[in-house]
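writing this on my phone so excuse typos. first protein, seq and then structure
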Amino acid sequence: MKKVLALVAASTLLATSAMADEPVMSSYNFSIGGYVKLDYAYNSDNLGVAGTITPGGAGLGSALAAKTGPSQQEQSILGVKQSRLWFKANGPTFLGAKTGALIEGDFYGDNSSAAESPQFRLRHAYGTIDWANTSILFGQYWDMFAPFVASTQDFRCGATTGAPNNPRSPQIKLTQRINLDQDNQLQFVVGLTDPTQYNDNGGVYTGTAATTGVVTGTAPLTAPTNAYGASLNYAAQLFFVSKAMGVAPGYFGMANQPFKIGIFGEYGNEHLHAAGTTAADTWGYGAYLFAPILKSSDGKSRAMTMSLEGQVYEAANMAFNAATAAQFANGATNVSATAATNLEPRRDLGVAAQIIFYPIQQLGLTAGYGNRINVNKAADMSQTAVYQKYNQELYFNAAYDLNAAVRVAAEYQNLEASFKNTDPTSGEFVAGAKAIASVNIARVCLYYFF
């Protein structure tokens, strides 16, 4: 009798577990993917532990910081931190819409850590609701300001040189498509995003330069009375999309894209972290183009295809996504509790363009250029601070697919940045001095996609 009861109880538990799992297994389709990536880079200057990718932030500041000594050493470095892992789910329908989610990460959580002990870092985490002509995305995704992504093998994607597609930020956005006919449509994109203009919406900084508004301290403190942090940013895009010209490969050659032209913009308003100070507007606007020069023969093949992509923009106080080199015209990135009340936002003009050509299905060739240049120079020249005048990049790369899983790629990059009030030898502050920093980079990459 005891054995019978035990079998009944066990059967009940198994049935209960199966019943509990059944809705999940029947409603969601899970998949896993990513790639292993090995990078080798030769740099004409020592770019440190993150030398497998191009310098970020202000551009070549790391190479310029000590023009004598270690930075003048050549560098040969291997890395695997750009390897990625993602999980994707296709869920149940909602009011006739398809739903899904994706979580993706890489191993760049701590660039200062040793190569054998990287930290996993969240890149994307978002859910989607897709109807035939309406889509909603919510979660963490690329910043909505500028759509151009430089197809570079280092994955900096030209962010500091005319292609400010970073950072990945919490957001919600709506995409609405209006079909004009079977080949042409309008696309409207509107959204809200959480900016990082002021220490990622963190606390106030105090430092030794409190009277100038330039902060040298790094410890966040309690905000002073009546101080405000960053407000949400509002973003919008409007594109005309046409399939009449056919399609050609876009970023990384991963998908064929149709003709696309349009405008984009982003706006926010940040109250300075000091009682009684004025607010600083954050804004940017620009135009974007993607054109299939040689279209795919069947809409899927990449053989003998070519695409041209480019964008131009102007932005102010958008250092958070590298659209500007700094937040303010004097180079300040944070504001102290006793900061000046009339800091002028830094304004930059950015341009970027690239050509992607596939002579055969397996081989992709890319050439591109990007430049981010200061346009409110008068305000900068009146300041006694180091500031960047321009930051540019020239790149060429070739990628060959050995099979569906293995890809080998090679790349050459030339990076150049110009600085004012900077000694060209030491990299230290010298009023009125000018300096140019440049780095030549040769890179080889091996991928295994899964």
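second protein below, same order as before
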Amino acid sequence: MNRTQLAQLAVLAAVSEHRSFRAAAKELLIAPSAVSHAVSSLEDSLGVRLLARTTRSVAPTEEGRLLLQRLKPALEEIGVALEAARDARGTPAGNLRITAPRFASDILLAPRLGEFLGRYPDITLEIANEDGFMDIVKEGFDAGIRLEESLEADMIAVRASPNLTTVIAASPEYFEKYPKPQHPRDLVHHRCIKRRFTNGTIYRWEFEKDGQELVVAVDGPLIVSEDRLALVAALNGAGLAYLFDLRVETELAGGKLVRVLEDWCAPYPGPFIYYPSRRQMRPALRAFVDFFKYSG
């Protein structure tokens, strides 16, 4: 392979990713005609059609898809090497994409973002909130934050918080109308705030005491998609909420929420930062992991 082909392969990868010659040209800062010429020259030299083109769309042919599939790890390594070279000036730089559930963004990331971005002004950080497990390689993220039970075995994982403990709580006004539950089974007689995940499932509340595990399909008049809304609803008397202790420390200490079933809520490992194993780690990602990892 000559150096010209290497540049042409990078152009091919950009066109395939964007499904557009014009968008690839914008990313690569070259003319659309130069993108078209690079792809055509590569196809001519290989003697195979790599992109299927119509007036409305561009997509890899089967041969193009297989070629790009094999090239992807190598192109990623080249990108990492270039980032490392840029870092020789002493400051991590570039775009960094992180996927995290909203509670982790709110509790672990948001309070420290100003300090992080102030320390690394050449990093552009993008945080996408998503509750379900994310294939970060497939979706183009540098790293993700999830609970340990969601992590794939081939990912590197670094703790991002202390242990978490579930809190079952409601407002004092709620308990003026309903007795406090003494056992998770008592929840069938309560108005519970349910949580629907992005995959459509309703979360069933999990409990553990003295090695005994219990799962309860609670019921109630309110279904939410994030714990922030559940917290606000619970504060206003809508019912019992299932929350993380780090989310409600202030509300519990101030008496705005009353905790129940505490003996059934055992601690468990908090969220982890996870990312794929690579021979070289992008300096910007290394800075993020080192900054947000839990060191307690």
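The chain has a mean pLDDT of 88. thats all i got for now
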